[in-house]
Amino acid sequence: MTTRIIATGAYVPEQVITNDDIAKVVDTSDEWIAKRTGIKERRISSGENTSMLAVKTARQLLERAGVEAETLDLIIVASITADYATPATSCIVQKEIGATNAVAFDVSAACSGFMFALSIADKYIRAGMYNNAVVIGAETLSKYIDWSDRSTCVLFGDGAGGAYIEKSETDGIIKEEIGTKGEIYDILTAGYTASTGAFNNYNTDHLWYVNMNGREVFKFATKSVVKSVERVLSDAGVSVDSLKYVVPHQANTRIVEIISHKLGIPYEKFYINMDKYGNTSSASIPIALNELNEKGLLKRGDKILLTGFGGGMTWGTMLISW
Ligand code: COA
């Protein structure tokens, strides 16, 4: 028994912020950003919070899968930019779509969040506990961006993407792994809140914003993804040649180029859309997967690989027979 993706969906805010727009507020240029990252524009929310993006994605998933909300067993939202510390964003999704019989919780694994959430949902389904799940990555990273820091503000965007998954006897998830390297957690952080003691005002400082050692993250990304993909393919006994597409975390085209080169997987097999959305953290892989699916580029039985890395530091890779 395995778990199969039945439907994909995504929602991004309407507001497009181009590299030229950002160049009006910090000392940067379209040329620098595009050359170093591959990003040309991103969507930035003008008021919709993370739960709203997730709810719109969930509604689309149910409609596309043709299932009633009451039949849902499990809702997992992966996010690092939830509306509240409590409730979990997934509980808001449960209410808004009327999934009265589902259990809902969130997962925090930054840009690997969707991979972690899918991995968890898969285990519940394989164990026979649940028959189906909605898994969503949703972020409004713009809340955590210091718009005067050119080294980070050019990279991120807002959005949500997800999958409706079901128990399957045939095609589905073949092999996967998730991993963490907490010893270097401090190379990428966001949303720090201090514990200031009784009667003190709750305050935030610069650590509220995304803080990143770009070069170290770059090194971690290329190493961890390459090793993870090699392990998953070798455990599954699947060669790189049999892969139809790789859907990587959409952080930086230079990272993808290195991964492509090291793994010997042609760059054309990597599905890239970071030029339009930037790095949407946990939403990046499902937004890209949904685009690939919407374009009709996936056929039943195609072998595809999802792989990502992110804060934590974390990584996750999944080999799927579509
Ligand atoms: N516009 C113009 N110049 C910029 C800039 C910007 N937006 N951001 C940084 N620079 C400058 C720096 O100040 C530095 O100038 P200096 O040489 O005068 O000191 C120069 O560009 C090089 O900076 P550096 O940080 O070494 O650039 P880089 O080649 O490492 O590229 C990143 C920076 C962030 C694009 C790159 O490190 C990266 O993509 N890292 C991974 C980040 C990532 O994926 N994060 C998400 C993880 S999920």
Describe the structure.
- It is a single chain.
- The mean pLDDT is 96.
- The strands form four sheets. A five-stranded mixed β-sheet has the order 1-7-6-4-5, sandwiched between helices. The protein has a four-stranded mixed β-sheet with strand order 8-13-12-11, sandwiched between helices. A two-stranded antiparallel ribbon has the order 2-3.
- 33% of the residues lie in helices and 24% in strands.
- It has helices at residues 19-23, 30-37, 50-65, 89-97, 113-126, 150-153, 214-236, 253-263, 274-277, 284-294, and strands at 2-11, 16-18, 41-43, 74-78, 103-107, 132-139, 159-168, 172-180, 188-189, 211-212, 245-248, 303-310, 314-321.
- With 322 residues, the protein is an alpha/beta fold.
- Helix 7 runs parallel beside helix 8 (253-263).
- Coenzyme A (COA) binds at residues 28, 32-33, 36-37, 111, 150-151, 154-155, 188, 212, 214-215, 217-218, 221, 251-252, 279, 310.
Can you write the helix and strand succession as a string?
Answer: EEHHEHEHEHEHEEEEHEHHHEE
Q: What is the number of helices? A: 10
Strand order of the largest sheet: 1-7-6-4-5
User: How many beta-strand elements?
Assistant: 13
- Distinct bound molecules: coenzyme A
Helix and strand composition category: alpha/beta
**Oligomer category:** single chain
Shape: globular
Q: End-to-end span in angstroms?
A: 15 Å
Biggest β-sheet description: 5 strands, mixed
The whole-number mean of residue pLDDT values reads: 96
Beta percentage is: 15-25%
